[in-house]
Amino acid sequence: MERLQKVIANCGVTSRRKAEELIVMGKVFVNGEKVTELGYKVSDSDVIMVDGVVLEKTNKEYYLLNKPRGYICAVSDDLGRKVVTDLIDTETRIYPVGRLDYDTTGLIILTNDGEFANKLMHPSFKVMKTYVAKIDGILKGEDIYKLKKGILIDGTKCVVDKIKVKKIDKEKNTSIVVIGISVGINHVVKRLFKAIGYEVLKLKRESIGFFDLGNLQSGEYRMLDDKEVKKVLAINNGK
Fold first, then answer.
1. What digits encode the pLDDT tens for the residues 181-210?
2. Is 154 assigned a catalytic role?
3. Could you give the 3-state DSSP secondary structure of residue 222?
4. Residue 166 belongs to domain spanning
5. Which residue among the candidates 77, 101, 103, 136 is catalytic per the annotation?
6. pLDDT digit string (tens) for 49-73?
7. Which helix (H) or strand (E) holds 24?
8. Mean pLDDT of the region 114-123
9. What confidence tens digit (pLDDT) does each residue in 208-237 have?
10. 218 and 204 assigned to the same domain
């Protein structure tokens, strides 16, 4: 027996948190009965319907993509923009874990496994994401201190896990900075630098936890192996 929201997430319908919202909203039925209790447990034989659609169990798939510029992290787009799922050759309904902005490049993971996605996204698991940012201006020591001390964004104190100035170009007045952070807030890197007076000109995500881009070129992807998947599923809160 497993919790209903976990089963929904594992079927690739949506994240566990979104599944919980759907349950509370009364959009989930088990064996024809509406269920609004988050602790409700189901078995393999139960028929689950979410928002009018019966769940079908699918094989779980996991991909690591080097996202190019000009793609959005979604499964579809009303404006007709290119989406990251267009780059993955699969018939399975997968979705990106977290997001990168339209103009941000680098590592993104896609899957249809809700539990796996939750381990990488939820703040309680403290999975660090590392970025390389090109900013306008020469990053000062006092500003590095501010980032290490923490900056308030949307009521959350954002403290960088690591920060290092990789390169300075005094002639062009720019800095290349490596920054690692485990806080899950939209546009967090851009907003952190903006808070201390810098604009991010380019941004690339190089790693998520123990995952990195390796030799993948822009637009290329690879499937995760069983060992990597099990390592993510074994992550505990704050470890």
1. 998 888 999 999 999 999 999 999 999 999
2. no
3. strand
4. 128-208
5. 101
6. 999 989 876 778 999 999 999 999 9
7. helix 16-24
8. 87
9. 999 999 999 999 999 999 999 999 999 886
10. no
DSSP code per residue over 95-156: EESS---TT-EEEEEEES-HHHHHHHH-GGG---EEEEEEEESPPPHHHHHHHHH-EEETTE
Q: Flag whether pLDDT at 239 surpasses 60.
A: no
Q: Is residue 239 part of a domain?
A: no
- The residue count for the chain: 239
Average pLDDT over residues 27-47: 92
Helix and strand numbers (H, E) in the chain are: 6, 17
Domain contains 117: yes
Strand partners, 129: 181, 208
Residue 175 is encoded by which pair of tokens? 């800095």
Residues 207/211/217/221 CA torsion (nearest 10 deg): -130
Question: Is the CB of residue 191 less than 8 Å from the CB of residue 185?
Answer: yes
State the Cα–Cα distance between residues 124 and 127, nearest whole angstrom.
Answer: 9
**Spatial distance between the Cα atoms of 59 and 65, rounded to a whole number of angstroms:** 19
Are 14 and 80 in the same domain? no
- Tokens in use for 89? 């050759």
Q: Which residue has the tokens 């024809």?
A: 32
